[in-house]
Design goal:
The protein is an alpha+beta fold. The termini are far apart. It is globular and about 80 Å long.
């Protein structure tokens, strides 16, 4: 089997990244489930019993290798979006814990920060305990892979509304599922449930309101956009490969080559992806150079996430029109990729994020800058 093709945000030759090769191989082995990716991350973190796996050298956000991380996320997503949905929160959790100076536990990690419907656990200090010790009570929605994760960074609120993040051992007996409904065809292997916490201990990750105010919050949001971008690349490769096959057939006298419509579709997709790759590469350099603090980072994250979401929608439309029903009906991998990306994009808040961006520009809360 050929080595899975990586995604690069800037042109360049071969790069020796053993972790990327291992993760791409795991993503290629998923094919409709995520077992290979889950087991690789577990083994590499020292959590898989009976295995002697070397730790993966995973690049963390803001630690000098942000572009490498986003290329890794995009590469895995272009291969299998469900596999990327396992890797992205694990990398995000590792980055959050590193930023807070908290050691990461072994095993697959998650990040549960949704407050959909106003549901989030209540946090209270452990009586007579250190200031890093908290107890969680209540519900948290949208907990992906809770049955596979060893621990998670979970957000909650104190009685006065102050928000905090804590690291929680998900094997604690006080953690229970509240529902298991996940009927979606997209991201079907990513089992997502609600969790209820009953006096579950958590260790502080940063201080009061740190989780949302740290620069890394915006950086993590751009990392999710890098996954969406990789999903669009994977779908675009269906068009690229089909067009290239027609061109090769024409050169060998075996049939007509691509028509002008096919060539136009390929050119349109290429310029969209090329422009987005450059934007992501610049943002990664800005992160590592310290140019994206919280305010400027949020502006850039809103710009990039909205642009990538729009790009993904356009790429799916162009590829669908140019290739017809064949890939959707004849290629399980392509059909999964389209369904997965449609669900994944719903993490984007659309007009609400555009409104937040516009408000930040008008109020002058950030010097992210106008360029027009």
């Amino acid at each position: 089997m050929a080595q899975p093709e990586p995604v690069r945000l800037v042109p360049g030759g071969a790069v020796d990244r053993p972790a990327e090769q291992a993760l791409l191989a795991a993503a290629a082995a998923c094919g409709g489930d995520v077992d290979a990716m889950v087991e690789l991350l577990r083994a590499a973190s020292g959590a898989a019993s009976g295995e002697d796996a070397a730790p993966l050298d995973l690049p963390l956000t803001g630690a000098g290798r942000t572009r490498e991380q986003w290329e890794l996320l995009a590469s895995v997503a272009a291969q299998d979006l469900s596999a990327a949905r396992v890797l992205e929160p694990h990398l995000d959790a590792l980055s959050i814990l590193s930023q807070a100076g908290v050691p990461a536990p072994a095993g697959l990690l998650g990040v549960y920060a949704s407050e959909s419907g106003g549901r989030t656990p209540a946090l209270r200090p452990v009586p007579d305990g250190p200031d890093t010790a908290w107890l969680l009570d209540g519900e948290k929605p949208w907990c992906s892979l809770a049955d596979r994760c060893a621990a998670a960074v979970v957000t909650g609120r104190e009685a006065d509304g102050t928000r905090r993040a804590v690291l929680v051992d998900l094997s604690h007996p006080g953690v229970a599922e509240t529902d298991s409904a996940w009927p979606a065809l997209g991201l079907a292997p990513i089992r997502t449930v609600g969790l209820a916490f009953d006096a579950v201990p958590g260790s502080a990750v940063g201080g009061a309101e740190w989780y949302l105010r740290r620069p890394g919050f915006a950086w993590g949001g751009i990392g999710v956009a890098a996954v969406w971008f990789g999903g669009a690349v994977g779908i675009a490769r269906t068009l690229r490969n089909a067009t290239a096959a027609r061109a090769a057939a024409e050169a060998e006298g075996r049939g007509p080559g691509p028509d002008q419509i096919g060539q136009a579709a390929l050119g349109r997709v290429d310029r969209l992806l090329h422009a987005m790759a450059a934007l992501l590469a610049r943002a990664a350099d800005d992160v590592d150079a310290g140019r994206l603090d919280h305010g400027r980072g949020m502006v850039e994250a809103d710009r990039i996430r909205g642009t990538v979401a729009q790009l993904c929608t356009e790429v799916m439309d162009v590829v669908g029109q140019a290739t017809g029903p064949g890939p959707l009906t004849g290629s399980a991998a392509h059909a999964r990729a389209v369904a997965d990306l449609q669900v994944y994009l719903r993490q984007h808040h659309g007009h609400r994020d555009d409104a937040r961006l516009g408000a930040a520009l008008l109020t002058g809360e950030t010097d992210g800058g106008w360029t027009w």
